[in-house]
Amino acid sequence: MRLFLLFLMLLSETSVAQSDERPVVRWALAPYAPFHIEDGPEAGQGVVDLALKGMMEALPEYLHVPLVMNASRAWQDIRDGEPVCHPAALKTPERERHAVFSDAGAIVPSMVVILRAEDAARVAPGKSTVSLMHLLKDEKLRPGILSERAYGDVQEVLEEPHGTTRPVWVSNNYGPFSLIRMLYSGRIDLMVEYPWILHFVKEHVPEAGVPLVALGIEESPPFYTSHVACANTPPGREIVARLNGWIATRIPLEENLRILGDWLDPITLERYRAAYEEMLSPLKAAQAD
After folding, report:
1. Rounded Cα–Cα distance for residues 117 and 37 (Å)
2. CB 82 within 8 Å of CB 231
3. What CA–CA distance (Å, rounded) separates 281 from 258?
4. d(Cα 111, Cα 109) in Å, to the nearest integer?
5. Which helix (H) or strand (E) holds 193?
6. What is the per-residue pLDDT for 4?
7. Phi, psi of 43 (to 5 degrees)
8. Burial 47-86 (b: 16+ CB within 10 A, else e)
9. Is 240 helix (H, G, I), strand (E, B) or coil?
10. Rounded to an integer, what distance in angstroms lies between the CA atom of residue 121 and that of residue 115?
11. Phi/psi at 93 (nearest 5 deg)?
12. pLDDT tier at 289 (50, 70, 90 boundaries)?
């Protein structure tokens, strides 16, 4: 069904493009909330939805086509030089080989370990952070990992073998909610994901009597910068250059912080506000020079 809808969207894009001479840019939207919210009363109010709306308004000379696609498809299109951009990407050395990245337009909280509350009480009693490597050596904990997903500084730690427990690899087609369901059912025992995800799940998905908790990862910094990433082609570099000017005007705005902070729990939001000023103020000053 998803492939059929994608076909219809591409067909519609072709039809519109034939009557519109503006160059096309396709925006890759992750197929899960709260990054992109497709339906319901909060449709279009996701973290990326609201930021992308501003980006598209800042580039009226382009024909913008938002498309829901998984990470594998998005990064493959970027590697192939297609007119595709990712509106909220983390920089990794592998990605920088094929993509051009904008200035930092936001910060995002680092990923956390999500696990069942009973397991958290056993492995990290009374703690708010934990060593991911230590958890992965626990023979009673089986991790779940999404394919084609960037896990930041803990990528290698998560993917390297630890002990005899093998991770469960899951397609990224439906994002982290596949892993959430596996946590509930007991098929896996931990996953690594953004705190936004758990906050959304707690508000919108019944716990089925299995409470989940998040622990900070000691091997990670508390926050990362987020960037627009486009194919490293002349059109892609032009889009990024244009957006850098827009980003410089957005960083100081309270609205920008609100978009990113709406899906955070109160404790994380307080740390996020402080880190936002600390990490982005020097970047803002550098961009102004």
Report:
1. 27
2. yes
3. 16
4. 6
5. strand 190-193
6. 43
7. -55, 135
8. bbbbbbebbbeebeebbbbbbbbbbebbbebbbeebbbbb
9. helix
10. 10
11. -55, -40
12. low
Q: Record the tokens describing residue 51, joined without a space.
A: 């930021």
DSSP assignments along 107-121, one per residue: EEEPPEEEEEHHHHH
Calculate ∠ Cα 23-251-61, nearest 5°. Answer: 15
Question: Which residue, among 49, 55, 21, 23, has the nearest Cα to 37 in the 3D structure?
Answer: 49
Where do the H-state alpha helices sit in 61-190?
A: 71-79, 93-96, 117-123, 132-136, 155-159, 177-185
Angstrom distances, CA of residue 160 to CA of 191, 219, 259: 15, 14, 35
Omega of the bond leading into 41 within 30 degrees of 0 (cis):
no
DSSP code for 205: S
pLDDT over 90 (residue 158): no
Structure tokens at 214: 């998040």
Mean per-residue pLDDT, 264-269? 81
- Looking only at the bridges linking them, the beta strands covering 106-109 and 143-146 are unpaired
Select the more confidently predicted residue: 192 or 31.
192
pTM score: 0.82
Set out the domains of the chain in order of their start, with CATH numbers.
2-108+223-288 (3.40.190.10), 111-217 (3.40.190.10)
User: In a 3-state reduction of DSSP, which class is residue 170?
Assistant: strand
SS3 for 261?
helix
The residue type found at 72 is S
Q: For residues 41 and 51, give the distance between their C-alpha atoms in angstroms, rounded to a whole number.
A: 18
Is the CB of residue 179 less than 8 Å from the CB of residue 146? yes
Q: In this predicted structure, which of 187-196, 227-236, 266-275 has the lowest mean pLDDT?
A: 266-275
In degrees, to the nearest 5, what angle opens at C-alpha 228 toward C-alphas 205 and 107?
A: 60
CA–CA distance, 77 with 246 (Å, rounded to integer)? 25
Query: How far apart (Å, rounded) are the C-alpha atoms in residues 51 and 259?
Result: 7
Q: How far apart are CA 51 and CA 117, in angstroms?
A: 33
